[in-house]
């Protein structure tokens, strides 16, 4: 089977909601990533076969085909097509899967997989909230689904609480994990470990002055146990707080995926090879634990042992997710999210998939390691798993 290679992978630094990236239209934010992928890799923009863009809240400024609007806002020629996809938090990870599958099938040679989400300008939940406020329809779940699963709605916050109870994770354990995420992220930022993957942009400070946006705004180098313990739980009597859950975030990210033929014809240098792709579906109510069976399937079908995987990126949507994954998979915590995760760095929904991949690719190469695995929970009880080999 033909191989698929990553020749460039990058992301913007995360912007807090209402933070440094608040003035960026999401199409322009995504376009900046497209332009940087092309310029950094030295790819002929007219040779790009497709752009696959992940975005969760496709409404308002992210509506009317955000993927195509990113292309139109970029320096890419009009001849480059695009498609917008939504697999919830895994949208741009799925974009990477589609890009790799297109290349591995031999139907395309150069594809950009990317994602964008401005949680400042298009707040989370807007696609559901706006129609209901206008009195249009009954929401995304018909009675047939509600009756089948005995719920009135599907909530990731509820799923996170369910996971904490199921796996016996108390508040202290979740807060300790969150604190560790901030400490790792702060150390990585101070050591410039993110420099290779970051696209530096112009941002705004609190007073509206122009600033260089080159550091993830969510990192709290001064985070402490007392501060985390003082936060109120989201649900009465629960254990999930804003401190042990991922941060709302503005950002964009992308990877450039090519065939072996494109490597030779365009003189491109690969950073990594796509080793395996997997996606599974499971319980839509607890929903967040699907990375566990998805990882088992990916390792089984790829023929890789867990011992072969040098680094793991497991999205920190909520602290119980990576903690349960570690326990059930039997993985080494020292290989998990080595530069911190979404609790510290932010979770720009549709952009998080290729954001994590950019971090994984460059972390493997910086450490001289070989195999990496990325997975994340997704709304509806779905999970993607990607295994790569750094080159």
UniProtKB/TrEMBL annotation:
The active site is at 89 (acyl-thioester intermediate), 347 (proton acceptor), 377 (proton acceptor). GO terms for molecular function: acetyl-CoA C-acyltransferase activity. The keyword Ligase does not apply. Residues 268-389 form the Thiolase C-terminal domain. Its EC number is 2.3.1.16. Gene3D superfamilies: 3.40.47.10. Keywords: Acyltransferase, Transferase. PROSITE patterns: THIOLASE_2. InterPro entries: Thiolase, Thiolase-like, Thiolase_C, Thiolase_CS, Thiolase_N. Belongs to the thiolase-like superfamily. Thiolase family. This is Acetyl-CoA C-acyltransferase.
């Amino acid at each position: 089977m033909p191989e698929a290679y990553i020749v460039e992978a990058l992301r913007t630094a995360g912007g807090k909601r209402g933070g440094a990236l608040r003035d960026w239209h999401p199409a322009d934010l995504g376009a900046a990533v497209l332009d940087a992928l092309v310029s950094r890799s030295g790819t002929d923009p007219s040779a790009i076969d497709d752009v696959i863009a992940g975005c969760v809240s496709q409404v308002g400024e992210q509506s009317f085909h955000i993927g195509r609007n990113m292309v139109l806002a970029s320096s890419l020629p009009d001849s480059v097509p695009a498609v917008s996809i939504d697999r919830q938090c895994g949208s741009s990870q799925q974009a990477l899967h589609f890009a790799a599958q297109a290349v591995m099938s031999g139907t395309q040679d150069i594809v950009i997989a990317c994602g964008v989400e401005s949680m400042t300008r298009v707040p989370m939940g807007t696609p559901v909230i706006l129609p209901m406020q206008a009195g249009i329809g009954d929401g995304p779940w018909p009675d047939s689904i509600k009756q089948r699963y005995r719920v009135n709605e599907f909530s990731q916050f509820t799923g996170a609480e369910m996971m904490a109870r199921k796996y016996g994770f108390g508040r202290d354990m979740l807060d300790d994990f969150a604190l560790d995420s901030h400490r790792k992220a702060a150390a990585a930022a101070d050591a410039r470990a993110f420099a290779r993957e970051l696209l530096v942009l112009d941002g705004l400070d609190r007073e509206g002055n122009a600033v260089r946006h080159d550091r993830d705004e969510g990192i709290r180098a001064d985070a402490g146990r007392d501060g985390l313990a003082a936060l109120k739980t989201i649900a009465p009597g629960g254990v999930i707080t804003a401190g042990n859950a991922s941060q709302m975030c503005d950002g964009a990210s992308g990877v450039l995926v090519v065939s072996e033929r494109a490597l030779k014809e365009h003189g491109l240098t690969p950073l990594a090879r796509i080793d395996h792709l997997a996606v599974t579906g499971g319980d839509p109510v607890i929903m967040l634990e699907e990375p566990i069976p998805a990882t088992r399937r990916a390792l089984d079908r790829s023929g890789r042992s867990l011992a072969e995987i040098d680094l793991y990126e497991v999205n920190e949507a909520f602290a119980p997710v990576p903690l349960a994954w570690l326990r059930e998979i039997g993985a080494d915590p020292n290989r998990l999210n080595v530069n911190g995760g979404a609790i510290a760095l932010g979770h720009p929904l549709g952009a998080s998939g290729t954001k994590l991949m950019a971090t994984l690719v460059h972390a493997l190469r910086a450490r001289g390691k070989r195999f990496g695995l990325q997975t994340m929970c997704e709304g509806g009880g779905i999970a993607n798993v990607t295994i790569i080999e750094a080159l």
